[in-house]
């Protein structure tokens, strides 16, 4: 019987539940490090591991098996590795479909992608369950293939409100990114941002076209605080933001719902070119775990300790993507060593 159907024992709060989805490519290697660190920082958490993506297709024929989805729904949070495998590039059933279905099923609509280094501190707030990724698609009789970008005003408004609230808790500046000179959905987006702005008079708002935003992110990333944008623009701009702040191996993300479990996952892909060699940088996965500790479990202290330990370990034992020679396991060990120091130094 699934644990989810058992009520928590009377008089005792149940243990927090996290589902780990290692995913594909380098996923299992970086997930292994996250698993050990989670056990160290939150030993009371019940951890359950399930397949998603190519691993799940191989095991069950489905990139998001029913058991995986049920476990995620019943959890407090989902910690997910990357999905994707070139073997399925031309297939009808693809690993990425599992991820998109999971985001949609959990309604994890607010994707927070922080990019921080030196004087740069950008938070991309990407809409995650609408737009081109989820619009009507198909093939017409004449052979034309189409994907459509669709947005209901409600989907835009809830994302934009989250972004304003986040901007208010930071430096009070929101850049809304769109393509309003061409797209209807962008004109709707811009109008809603204007309306919601009235409720946040303390936040400075600017509108920026996505091509300009890409250029500005590349040449002057320190000018941004919070960037709010739709699904596809956010996908592309978040890779760029990661690249200008140290690389894809470092960038974590949190995909939050309203009340239900969120998904915490690296921005990077499955990196099939280096999979299985034990050299992938686990920092993005560990930072995603830090976001999980903070946003899903409310363990702010543990989240901060982990973020600091990752920072320290990256400097002490960099992996090849950063010009170092450390393996995935060595960076993981450096993080744990640092954590052990922090924990033993903590006042009783
Ligand atoms: C990301 C990834 C996914 C996306 C892919 C794997 C479907 O690129 O999380 O940014 O496009 O959202
Ligand atoms: Mg992406």
Alpha-carbon distance between the termini?
40 Å
Number of helices: 11
Radius of gyration: 20 Å
Summarize the helix and strand pattern as letters: EHEHHEHEEEEHEHEHEHEEHHH
Can I get a quick summary?
With 348 residues, the protein is of the alpha/beta class.
How would you sum up this structure, described in words?
It is a single chain. The protein is of the alpha/beta class and 348 residues long. It is 41% helix and 18% strand. The chain has eleven helices and twelve strands. Strand 1, helix 1 (27-41) and strand 2 form a beta-alpha-beta unit. Helix 1 packs across helix 9 (283-295), helix 5 crosses helix 6 (184-197) and helix 9 (283-295) packs antiparallel against helix 10 (300-316).
List keywords for this structure.
two-stranded antiparallel ribbon, 18% strand, alpha/beta, globular, disordered N terminus, binds magnesium ion, binds 3-isopropylmalic acid, 348 residues, 12 strands
């Amino acid at each position: 019987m699934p644990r989810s159907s058992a009520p928590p024992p009377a008089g005792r709060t149940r243990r927090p539940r996290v589902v780990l989805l290692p995913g594909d490519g380098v996923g299992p290697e970086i997930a292994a490090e996250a698993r050990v660190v989670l056990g160290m920082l939150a030993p009371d958490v019940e951890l359950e591991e399930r397949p998603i993506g190519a691993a799940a297709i191989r095991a069950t024929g489905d990139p998001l098996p029913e058991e995986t989805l049920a476990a995620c729904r019943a959890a407090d949070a989902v910690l997910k590795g990357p999905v994707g495998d070139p073997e399925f590039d031309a297939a009808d059933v693809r690993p990425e479909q599992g991820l998109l279905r999971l985001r949609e099923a959990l309604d994890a609509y607010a994707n927070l992608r922080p990019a921080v280094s030196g004087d740069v501190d950008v938070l991309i707030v990407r809409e995650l369950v609408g737009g081109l990724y989820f619009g009507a698609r198909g093939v017409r009789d004449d052979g034309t293939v189409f994907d459509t970008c669709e947005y209901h005003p409600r989907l835009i408004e809830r994302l934009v409100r989250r972004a304003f609230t986040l901007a208010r808790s930071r430096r009070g500046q929101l850049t809304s990114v769109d393509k309003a000179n061409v797209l209807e959905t962008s004109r709707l987006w811009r109008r809603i941002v204007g309306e919601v702005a009235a409720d946040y008079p303390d936040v400075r708002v600017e509108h920026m076209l996505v091509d300009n935003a890409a250029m500005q992110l590349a040449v002057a990333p320190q000018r941004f605080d919070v960037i709010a944008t739709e699904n596809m623009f956010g996908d592309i701009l978040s890779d760029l933001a990661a690249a200008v702040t140290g690389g894809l191996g470092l960038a974590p993300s949190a995909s939050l719902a309203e009340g239900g479990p969120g998904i915490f996952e690296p921005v990077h892909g499955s990196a099939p070119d280096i999979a299985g060699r034990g050299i992938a940088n686990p920092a993005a996965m560990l930072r995603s775990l830090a976001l999980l500790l903070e946003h899903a479990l409310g363990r702010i202290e543990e989240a901060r300790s982990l973020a600091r330990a990752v920072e320290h370990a990256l400097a002490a034992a960099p992996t090849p993507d950063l010009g170092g020679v450390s393996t995935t396991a060595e960076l993981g060990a450096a993080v744990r060593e640092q954590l052990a120091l922090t924990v033993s130094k903590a006042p009783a």
